[in-house]
Amino acid sequence: RIHTHRSRDQPDGTRMEKVLVDAATNYFKVWNSQDLKALEETFIPDTAKLRDWDVKVEGTAEVVKANGNIFKSVPKIKIEVLKLHPSPSECSISCEIAVHVNDDKKTVLKVVDVIEMTKEGKIIALRAYKG
Q1: How many CB atoms lie within 10 A of CB 113?
Q2: pTM for the full model?
Q3: What burial class does residue 78 get, using C-beta atoms within 10 Å of its C-beta: 0-12 exposed, 13-18 middle, 19+ buried?
Q4: 101 secondary structure, DSSP code
Q5: Which end of the chain, N or C, is less packed with Cβ atoms under 10 Å?
Q6: Residue 2 scores a pLDDT above 80
Q7: Residue 6 near residue 34, CB atoms below 8 Å
Q8: Are 21 and 93 in contact (CB under 8 A)?
Q9: Segment 5-56, tens digit of pLDDT
């Protein structure tokens, strides 16, 4: 079960909070499946952005391609969602995740993804921070 931090200034169960949590949960499920077509569907058409400690890309096709490159170079990679912190007023969600590289060293990266979304739950931009 994923722990969800509820904002104190928003009543529990707000529609936007549910949209954010559901969309983020779905994104990580799709990411773990490594299905690039399904991954593309989690983003807005054409103009999505992705930035992490190695990559900065603009354009939904480029975002999907960057993820595909990760899957090719680290085929056993999986994300474990630890905590979700929705911010309905900002239409964004911060996600504490553990990235299991599943290499010989059993590498696990602690990462925070900050995901901006539309009101429908499509990803506009994703910024990933390692640490």
Answers
A1: 23
A2: 0.89
A3: middle
A4: -
A5: N
A6: no
A7: no
A8: yes
A9: 554 544 444 899 999 999 999 999 999 999 999 999 999 999 999 999 999 9
Type of residue at 116: E
Predicted local confidence at residue 11, as pLDDT: 46
Which of 8-17, 57-66, 115-124 shows the lowest mean pLDDT across its residues?
Answer: 8-17
| Sheet of strand 92-100: strand arrangement | 3-4, 78-87, 92-100, 108-117, 123-130, 49-51, 56-58
Checking DSSP bridges between strand 56-58 and strand 49-51, what pairing results, if any? antiparallel
| Helix (H), strand (E) at residue 110 | strand 108-117
For tokens 């480029």, what's the residue? Answer: 62
Q: Which residues, other chains included, contact 96 with Cβ-Cβ below 8 Å and sequence gap of 6+?
A: 81, 82, 83, 84, 85, 110, 111, 112
Distance CA 2, CA 25 (A): 9
Q: In which element (H, E) is residue 25 found?
A: helix 15-33
pLDDT tens for 90-102 read: 999 999 999 999 9
Backbone φ and ψ of 38, nearest 5°: -65, -35
